[in-house]
């Protein structure tokens, strides 16, 4: 039997790859005949490795397999399929097995490439967010329109190969009409993922380009924070996170159970992917203070900044923009503007520690922009923000007037490197672009000549540059 969805090429390094597929319940599932994924990996005509993975019904028959010991910057061909085995016939899923193990009559194949060696000097990737598909809408064909952006990204990859694809939130809408219409149970949620990821263009893209994802609010509910759990039954949040883990987080880098933030490296370029939703507390209680990241994640992020302080460029993924800020009428309290104490801590740490070349990647706001932040008291301080949203949104988009294009932020912070004096410290950002249309952003980095050369280009849903922002943003 053939796989029902995938493969998705997930977290990939110069020596390893993580591959995701979905199977299906077999006819003898009730008598303990279970579903397994079968994988054969080839370099050219030579079989390199074979492996099985267990496709658990708890995860809607999704699962991942990892191959290690691969060659850097090398093209591999993958064949995958399904097998059904009873308890007494359970295949070894922990180690490589003698192959081939895929039934050639029902195999699904693809090709991918491992990342280049760790001393490589270039990086190219596409990122974006917010892919609204309302499957119960009989007026608009959301499916066809929502998949066009990914055809353009795939074409971009064919013309100028991408190292990876990064989706930074709202990959599906579990609440397409907010509380008026929400998908309520695990089967309904998984069906939305299956329909969304089965569309031709996004499926083609994810089957050959390493794909990384992180959730935002609509994988759960609009403007989600832990405070909302008081108003729901205990299974509401757990059900949504099980669907998210099954279809998105499984192919990300491994994390401890229940942790959804993660980090990875592409050559010399490190990435920290924040979870800005599941640990968020938007209203302080007598027990817990207001927070976007939670204590453990914030501390891990600051430690990550310290460890990678000398990396040529450091990328931080925050599903909601670190800056620029929306105006209050557009929900600024849901963004980092509503968590200024925590934002101040991060800015203070970066400035006092003298860490440079940090780039924030964000989505969420249905408007794409670029911005730079500087500090009046420290001329060496510089942060960059790239915001890309939405992949598809059939309703009116946000416009430039909905944001503070330039804004000064003032905080009481340490004013010297020895942390003895505190004073008012002023940060100011200036933004540009503010494109209110379907879009995606391509980021390119080259450190071959020493100082990083970085650019970001924004494309519309058809893969064309916008006439009112035709040139790359250099940072």
From TrEMBL:
Top-level lineage group: Bacteria
Domain PhoD-like phosphatase metallophosphatase residue range list: 150-385
SUPFAM superfamilies: Metallo-dependent phosphatases
Annotated Gene3D superfamilies: PhoD-like phosphatase
Protein name: Alkaline phosphatase D
Organism annotation: Methylomonas methanica
